[in-house]
Amino acid sequence: MDESPHTVTTLPTARQPGRPFDPPAELLDARRHGPISRYTFPSGKPGWLLTGYDLIKSVLADPRFSSRKELMLHPTIDYGGIQIPPAPPGEFLLMDDPRHSRYRKPLMGKFTVRRMRLLTERLGQITADHLDAMEKAGPPADLVTAFAKPIPAIMICELLGVGRQDRDSFREQVDAFMDAEAEDEDVLAAYTTTQHHLAELVAAKRAHPTDDVLSDLTDSDLTDEELRGIALILLAAGLDTTTNMLALGTFALLRNPDQLAALRADPTLIDRAVEELLRYLSVGKTFIRTALEDVELGGQTIRAGSPLILSYNTANRDP
Ligand code: HEM
């Protein structure tokens, strides 16, 4: 028999005053009651909120929980029964197998040791150039605009083979269509412009392949539309995540001077520091899955079709 679980009525995002890195108090409180809580979605559909580390890990590895876009419910907005279409070709982040592996497999194959070595060298050079420029410009420096935003944008553009002359406009368009506070029509316009530029980029790589992931992928059975979708996902998934890690990671170290001093005293700690900052900051906070069949989970029966919210930032503070 199911134990009666805790119920969460709202999904708060506001931080506690003076605790900018911690999840909202209500979510931490939910986790203290147990790794799974009931949560009713704004449309009235009953679902679940997962806050326990082990439980979330088990869901991520379980194909009975789907990432498909068309099944997803927004955790805080009621779209009034509008049927969401499946993810467009290539945008594999919101797909399950076999659609997912049609894109993921060939893409993985392009992240070769050689390419990663070249990108790492380039990254070192680009980072040094940006630090030099900040030093030359003198204080005050804005880490976000001078460092955290441009470096991921340059790296992803190099991965996709976007020419230097187009990089600023790419970044601006992606910023515009990922701006959560922008008007719908502005987001749609920026999305359409980005798609247009990506179509031109794919055509250029087919005609004149260069040494980059997108050019390499033209040597497969993927269509232009699919290649455009993959490129869009790399831009959308790789920019803000990395920018936020660089900026917030620096902020977190400045707020924790003992940790910063430890890292400065022993730079070989950097890999562990990055892992720890990924956990501590959890810049990707909330993900959704949908149960494809009835599943027993954490002492509860999750009915087929139920939406689950995975609260990564809360799980990443699970003792
Ligand atoms: C610190 C930086 C990053 C963080 C914290 C991060 C986080 C994540 C998370 C949590 C997911 C899983 C989403 C889910 O399960 O629904 C994901 C997926 C993904 N990310 Fe990132 N990401 C980062 C950087 C990047 C970069 C730089 C790229 C590309 C250049 C990228 C490309 C992707 C792609 C393609 C997926 C989908 C994978 C799949 O469905 O097989 N990410 N990322």
Description of the structure:
This protein is α/β, with parallel strands linked by helices and 319 residues long. The chain has two domains: 1-95 and 282-319, Uridine Diphospho-n-acetylenolpyruvylglucosamine Reductase, domain 2 (2-Layer Sandwich), CATH 3.30.43.20; 97-255, Cytochrome P450 (Cytochrome p450, Orthogonal Bundle), CATH 1.10.630. Helices cover 53% and strands 10% of the residues. The chain contains 13 helices and eight strands. It has helices at residues 25-33, 53-60, 99-110, 113-137, 143-148, 150-160, 167-177, 184-207, 213-217, 224-255, 257-265, 270-281, 312-315, and strands at 6-8, 36-40, 46-50, 65-66, 286-291, 295-297, 300-302, 307-311. The protein has a six-stranded mixed sheet, with helices on both faces. Strands 6-7 form a two-stranded antiparallel sheet. Helix 4 packs antiparallel against helix 6 and helix 6 packs antiparallel against helix 10. The protein is globular, with a radius of gyration of 21 Å. The two termini are 27 Å apart. The model has no long low-confidence stretch (mean pLDDT 94). Protoporphyrin IX containing FE binds next to helix 10. Protoporphyrin IX containing FE (HEM) binds next to helix 10.
What's the short story on this structure?
With 319 residues, the protein is of the alpha/beta class. The chain has helices at residues 25-33, 53-60, 99-110, 113-137, 143-148, 150-160, 167-177, 184-207, 213-217, 224-255, 257-265, 270-281, 312-315, and strands at residues 6-8, 36-40, 46-50, 65-66, 286-291, 295-297, 300-302, 307-311.
